[in-house]
Amino acid sequence: MPIKKSAKKALRQSKKRRTRNRAQKQKIRTLLKEVKGFISENKISEAKKALPKVYKALDKAAKVGLMKENTASRIKSRLTKALAKSR
Asked: Which of 1, 20, 55, 60 has the fewest CB atoms found within 10 Å of its own CB?
């Protein structure tokens, strides 16, 4: 356990950030699963409606440094490609 005051504060900050990051990553994972499920079930209209939510979550994650911008772009590209292919 940290002894110095600054180390204690750093620990508190890192715990807060960890919970926030994990929640955001989990949200992205569930949204991706949802869209992929719609695509696999050929529910194209539902997938199209859910796609902007995924885009927003990925862009926000890339903006705050949760993931790299290229990673977010790659995921978005693959989702869009899969959606176009399933039509």
From this structure: 1
